[in-house]
Each structure stands twice: as C-alpha cells, then as structure tokens.
Amino acid sequence: MLAPYSWLKEYVDIDVTPQELEDKLFSCGFEVEELIEVGKDVTNVVVGYVESCEPIEGTHLSLCKVDAGTGELLQICCGADNVCAGKKFPVAKIGATVYATAKDHKTIEGVATIGQGKLRGYDSYGMLCSGTELGLNEDLYPGAGYNGLLVLPEDAEIGADVKPILGMDDWIFDISITANRPDCQSILGIAREVAAVLGKELKMPSLDYTETEVKKEGFTVTVDAPDICPRYIGHYVYDVKMGESPAWMKRRLALVGIGSISNMVDITNYILKELGQPMHAFDGHFLEGNAINVRRAAEGEKIVTLDEKEFTLNPNNLVICDGNRPVALAGIMGGLNSEIRDTTTDVLFESAKFARDNIRKSSRALGQSSDSSQVYAKGVNEYTTVMAMKRALHLVEELGCGKVSSTHVDVNTGNSVEPTEMKASVKRVNGVIGITVPDEEIIRILTNLNFQPVLNGDELTIQVPAYREDMESYPDIAEELIRMYGYDHVVPTFMPTAEVTLGGLNQRQKSELKVKKALAAAGAYEGIHYSFFSPADLDLIKLPADAPERHAIRLINPITEDLSLMRTTLVPQMLQAIARNQKRGTIAGRIFEFGKAFIAKELPLTDYPDERETLCIGVFGEGEDFFSLKGLCETVADALNITFRYATANRTYLHPYQTAEIFCDGECVGVLGKALYEICDELDMRVPAYVAQIDMRLLSKYYGKLEMYQPLPKFDIEKRDFAFVCDRSVTCQEIEDTIYASCRYVTDVKLFDVYEGAQLAKDKKSMAFNVVFTPADTEFKAATVDGFVNDILTALKEQQNVTLRA
C-alpha cells in the first residue's frame, strides 16, 4: 500500500517528520516496508534564470549566461530547442546529481554527476535540465513530459532548490496491510490511523454534490446473486465533457503508480486509492436495454475485457450485464464493449461490494488480475461503497466534467452502514492485555479511533463504525487499546499456568527422534508432505465408498483441489513421492515420514479432529522387497524396545499375497505390503513400490521403555540354518511362532531367503531361516541340539505341513 506523505497531509495536520511518522505507524501495528524519498537521486539542482542566450554558429547549441543565485553568471552550453533568455529553468551545478537518459531523452539509464565540460570549444559550468533528467513526467509536473527544458514558474526564487517547487520533496510510505485490516488499504484508511496516533482531527474528503432534475427514464438495476453481491449502486451522469484531469489529481495518481487516462477514468482510479473502493464507469451510449443485471455467468459465456483478452466463463464467475450481454467481469475488469471513449457523453458509475472469496477465486481461475481485484480479494465494506459513490459525484462537479442526474439506484440486502453498538467488560479487556490501561487512556484512544466510547463503571460501550468489520468482541478492543497505548507498557510476566523447566526434549520427542535416527541409519531419508491431499488420492489407493479414510475433512477455501482434504492416511503421498523420484532418475531408495492423519469424529465437524501421529515408510528399487520393508519395521520395534508380530491381511492398495498387519502385544498397529501393479502403472513407476504405515499413537505407551539387561550365556550358542518347503499361504510369522513354541532354548529366528521358482511346485515356496539356540545352565551336546531340531521339524510338519527342502 503506497501512501504519499503529501496526500496524507490533505486529511491530517501532520506535525512530525516522515521518519517520525514511520516509527509511529510501526508502533501502532503498521509496518512501513520502505520509506521512499521522491527526489532522492537529485541533488544540488536550483532555479536558474537565463540572462542571455546566443546560438553557437554551425551547431544546434546555444551559449547561455545563467544566474543561479551564486552572485556570478554561469556559462552553460545547451542544446534544447526551447532554451531562451528571460525564462527560468532547473540548473544542475557542478557536483550535482541527476538522472542520465538514453538517446530518446525519456528512458532513464542511471544517475549522473555533473562536472565541468567543454562543447565546441566553449566551457560549460553546469547543465540546464529537462523534466526526465529530474525523474519527472507529465503527470508529476506539467511540462515535464516535453522533450526539452523544464520551464519553471516565473515567481520561482532564483537559486532556490527546485525540489519544493516541483513536489520532489515528498515521501512515499510503502505500508504492509495485515489481512484483518482491509479498511486501511486506502489513503483515507491510513489517514485515520495517522490522526489517531497523532491525536489530530481527521479531515474527511468532500462528499457533497447537486443532482439535477434529469432522469434516465426506465433505467433498472437487478441483482440475481445477492449472496456474492450484497450491494450494488449505480448513478447516471450526463453532459459529460471528456478531457484531462487537473494537475493535482494526475500527480497523486502518479505517486501511487497510476498513469492518467482521462478525467472520468481518473476519478474511478482516484477513489480506488483514496477510499479503497474499486469503481467502474460505463459508457452509457453502449449499454443496451437500459438496464444493469448482476448475475452469475452462464456456462461457456464469453467476455472481452478492457485489455482485449477473451475469457470463457462459468457460473462461478460474477458478471455485470446490460439488457443483453456481459459488460464487465465483476470486481476484476470492465468489458471492452462499454469502455469510456473520447466521445463519451453519458456515464453510469458503479460502486459495489462483491464477496472477496468469489473475486479471489475468479481472478485466480481466469488468470486475470487488476488493482480492483486485489482490493476486492482483501475485502471491501459497504460503508465505503456508499461513500465512494458520493465522492465520485462530488469530483465530477468539482472537475466540471459532467452533470449529476437524479437517477440513483442502490440494490442491497439491508446491511446497515451505520455504527453498531458493542459492550465489553473493562476488566476482561485489561485481562487480555495483561496490564491495567487507565480509564482516561481508554476513552482517549477509542475516541481517536472514532469508536465514541462511553464508560460506566466496568461496562464499556462503543459504537463500531461500519468500515471496521474486524471488530467482533472484547479481544479486538484490547488489541486496539494496546497498539495505541504502546506495547512498551506491557510488563513481562509468566502466564498463570506457566512453570519453569530445564528445557530439552520430552519423552515423545526423544522416542520419535530415536526412531528417525534408527531409520536414517538403515539408509532411509525423511520426507515431509503437506497435511492436505486430493480426493483423487483416495481413488488412487482404490478405497471403497464406505472406507473410513474417505470421511475426510474438506477445506472451505482450498488453494487447489489437489489440496482440498485433510489427509486421513499418508500412503498416497508416499506412493507419489516414490513415483516422482523414479521419474527424476532415482530408481532405488528408502523414504519415511512422520506426519499426522486427521480423523474426524463426525462430519460436518462438531469438535476438533483426532490428530494421529503416523509413520509411513516406502522402499523401491533393486534389493528392496516385502522383507526389506519388514526389516525397517523391525528397526522401529528395536528402537522402541518392543516386538512386532505379523499376520496376513488384505488392503485395497496392496498385493493380496504380500500384505501383512503389524501387531504389538496383540494390538494391530499398522500394515505393510507391496503396492498393486495397477497403482504403480498409473503413477508410471519403473520399479515396484512397497509401503508400510504405523499408528505411532498406539505405540506411544511404549515410549521410554527401557531395554532389559540380558546376561551373556555361559556356554557357546548353537546356530542352525534350515530351508523349508511349504504352501504359499504359510507365512513367515507362522513358521517363526512354531519354532519358538517347539523349543524353549530358541532365542532368535531370522529369515534370510525366500525362493519361488521352477524347482518347486507352483503352489509351493521355500523360506530359509537361521535359528539360534542358547544354553542355560549346561553346555549343549550335539545330540541335544539334534533333538531340538527334530522337535522343530516334527511340529512344523504337523502344524503347517512344512518339510525340509532337499
């Protein structure tokens, strides 16, 4: 938000320097991102009076004698076609800095320092300047756009600095406006704050105008979409005289980055910056049907905007129509078919409030942005909508560019533009701030902010202006008080429930960090994804319509449809991460993510969702399979000093024969398996992917579990390797359980190979295990271990029909 110092002084008698005002604005909550000095690069340029001017024979140059107020005439060579004796021009003396221009004398290429020169044998002690060389254009100062010297007023004092004369002693505040204060995205809005912080009176802009008896007979305005256009005001102006705007208006617009177009168009741009209300002017001659209709666009309807771009619309877009066709894209840009022309003789002014979310979404979807759409996207209040129309009609009369008819139409939903009453307890207000603001300060501050406060004991009553839509309850009053009273008054203190701790990580953080380090040591990289995903992600993993994961929380205003739901599972994003890596040439890897799944207790929401801490692991590439993923799950178990068990399972997104649920102490805590081939193909994966998801919330009760000391065995352990043949339906877990149950001396069982192929029947597979036997009180004899082996083989044969592979 650009706010020129000189423009602010139109509304407030500012008696502090721009630098002091910058500090005061910052103290009351408005960050000045940059304080721009208008004439910063121009120095030592004064008013010069040309005493004599003689042409240099054979050249386009003139030899001038110039009085620059130094007591001696300066000899300056000048090639401008409008240099002459008896006039005053800007003189850059030796050592002065001005802007260097290109050959076209309009494009600025940098800053130049003036030195003594010599042209055609004549010494030159300075330079007579054009407007461009001073950084000016026609809008900033009349005559500055001429390709020659800038002519100064006859009453300019010789030798005086040209900056005050040319308005180059001004400053521009570039202010960051927070989202809760859209009323401050205007010069008047900032002026209100300046008046309040300085304790000065705010001088309101003139709103008076005189209506004639002329009417636009039969003219009507209808609003078919009041939900996104709660107020639309139209006023007819006739006998329009198109022309240039006055110098003061052109200058103010130029200071905020807007070039002058014509008086009627400039009025709308001026009000946009002055009041923060976008307006539009339609050429009445090109409005058909003697009507305005505000409605949603029809599917496929087209419009060509003022910048000659054609857009295909849909019902999400709001359009302003005449009796037959769209003539403006509401809140974004007017239509080319009703633009103001040099021949315009009657105008319909529009001032409206459109729903900020509708304008923001339309602007983004169409890829069309404007100053108006940016203001509407942040919010416009109806108080300013009404005020802006009055101001526009006043300016029409002030500039003498038209006559105001009595045709005025205000279609609205009944929202009042008068102040609303709010009551609050002073004790509660002070409780929010944490200090006691004196009653007299409360009255002073709220009066300066135009809240008309009344204090009756502990009860504070204020009148909230209609432009302060951010004021909802007593915490907002507290915010207004402390930002004006001064944050330096706040005394540091502990919260009532605060306690001093030694710092460091809590048990949950320590345990999760331990798991992360263990996974990283196993070659996995941590990934972080958004907490949102797309409905298409749930389709990707082929969840049925009644799956719990589909009961996801939808965002009211998502950035995009791809991020429109709070995620209920981390699996889709892990699969997509694996696919992205493969597309970018990484065809092997291990990834894990600690994140939250958001589970709604019921929809629509009546309470906060359950935020479940979840671990998702993905592996892919050479050497990775179901069992390497299981190994990473075991790494998690080892880090927490717990034991996982596994059982066959089914998931819609996992291979039916390579899926297992993970159990801890009989409770299912997760699942792992191989992603379906169809999913991998849909994501254009080059190698298979394997994923696991573990509910860390269920494992949180084991956080901090200590590892129990196991004494080293007194005697040597015995190891045996077995290669078993079994049905494909038999799981590794079933075989491990049988081995452990068959011999109490078995302390470890590890799977180290799985084979399925031509050497076995189609319904068979081979699994190889390493089994460790640990003696207790006596050393094992070979016959003893052979007995253990026989017991294991017998149990496996009887329970799972498992045999040794020949």
Mean of residue pLDDT values: 93
Beta strands, count: 38
Bin the helical content.
25-40%
Q: Give the count of helical stretches.
A: 20
Low-confidence stretches: none
- Overall outline: elongated
Rounded to the nearest angstrom, the radius of gyration is 40 Å
Largest sheet, spatial ordering of strands: 26-29-30-34-33-32-31
Q: Structural class, from secondary structure content? A: alpha+beta
Main sheet summary: 7 strands, mixed
Strand content: 25-35%
Keywords:
806 residues, alpha+beta
Topology of this protein?
Elements: E1 2-4, H1 5-8, H2 18-27, E2 31-37, E3 43-55, E4 62-67, E5 73-78, E6 88-101, E7 108-113, E8 117-119, E9 122-124, E10 127-128, H3 162-166, E11 171-176, H4 187-198, E12 220-223, E13 231-238, H5 247-255, H6 263-275, E14 279-283, E15 291-296, E16 302-304, E17 310-312, E18 318-321, E19 326-329, E20 333-334, E21 347-353, H7 356-366, H8 371-378, H9 382-399, E22 403-412, E23 420-425, H10 426-433, H11 439-448, E24 454-456, E25 459-464, H12 474-485, H13 507-521, E26 525-526, E27 532-533, H14 535-540, E28 565-566, H15 571-583, E29 589-599, E30 610-620, H16 626-639, E31 645-648, E32 654-664, E33 667-675, H17 677-682, E34 689-695, H18 696-699, E35 718-727, H19 732-742, E36 746-755, E37 764-773, H20 782-800, E38 803-804
Please give a structural write-up:
With 806 residues, the protein is α+β, with helices and mostly antiparallel strands. 26% of the residues lie in helices and 29% in strands. The chain contains 20 helices and 38 strands. The strands form 10 sheets. The protein has a 7-stranded mixed beta sheet, sandwiched between helices. Helix 7 crosses helix 8, helix 13 packs antiparallel against helix 16 and helix 19 packs across helix 20. The mean pLDDT is 93.
